[in-house]
Give the backbone structure.
Amino acid sequence: MANISFWLKDPNAKTESLIFLYFSYEGKRFKYSTGFKVNPINWAGNKVKKNAAINARLSILGSDVLSIYATLKSKKQIITNELLRKELEQLQVSTNPTAPKANNGFLIECIDLCITDRKDRVQPNTLKKFTSLKFNVNYFQDHFAIRHIKLTEVNHDFYKRFTKLLYANKKLQDTTVGKLIIALRIVLKWCSENGFEVPPDFKKFKIPARETQIITLTQKEFLKIYSLELGEHERLKKARDLFCFCALTGLRFSDVIQIQKSNVTNGELNFSTQKTKANLKIPLSPMAIDILERYEYSLPKISNQKLNDYLKEIGQLAELNDPVVMIEYRGTKQERHEYKKWECLTSHTARRTFVTIGLQNGMRPETVMSITGHKDMRTMRPYIQITGEAKKNELFKAWDFNK
């Protein structure tokens, strides 16, 4: 069985010692100097303490050896230490002529390091942004036949080519591209803080920003779904109840499915949100309590994707057929699409509905924010959709001097 390990030349040295790669295969052992040196007191097994740059290069070197071995084996070549050394040195020259410099990392490997560093401190959905970035960087490398993008190459020219490819080939919208650039900037900032050489212009990478188009339900539409007769469709009943509970409390779907009976005291929900860790106290309306009691305070567990699919079925049955115009922005281009409202329903529509109906029915913004966990009006603004009818009613009420 092929195995990679790293050892110090002299683990008892009082000064820095060379790090060697050892590759065991077919009863043989291949030894290779990595070119890196470290004081033994900073060596921990197969890696250097607090030096992500060197550890990233060691990881890449190990992967390269395994890749070379697999390629030679697939070609049925007789594998020797001399052949491995020759192939590895050729690869090192072609992909990294300045090796071994600890500050000259590769983007993909550094994304992995950043994910590893953050995985115990952030939610899985947050990590997905970095895995999505990795997927799209790999797409970029494949498209341009680049084996490894060096961190030193992630400059403004890379930014322009990367975003152009995302718009032109992958047809991504501004909002999606913006999330990828935010993730990229976070990775590069992490690299800079951990000893990697990063072009300073990454801080100037522009994040495409467009005002978020939102879909909310009117009070009439919400009640229509709440009271919709669904017969024997248990899956739709559960989806409807989850959606309505989100709309009645302002909670995210990811929080709602975690609720237990112990979270409810004297008609109030006490809960720490998964995304922001905010401690919220939410008064439960009779409608919300009715839903909880229906499931003995343990709401149904289904995936967010399934819920979104079921909501479109529910919206269609509720005849939410009003036209909705959505504009998709891709850089300087925009596309106009028209849908029926039921086609746009998602679990997040519920949270936005809570904010909009609450404000329209007289809740103070501060009260709404204390329930949703928003820190200020700027972060809550994308959740608000005031209808034309509501604007008309409030304006006439404010300027009716005959009342």
Notes: Confidence is low (pLDDT under 50) at residues 97-103. DSSP finds 15 helices and ten strands in the chain. The longest strand covers residues 28-38.
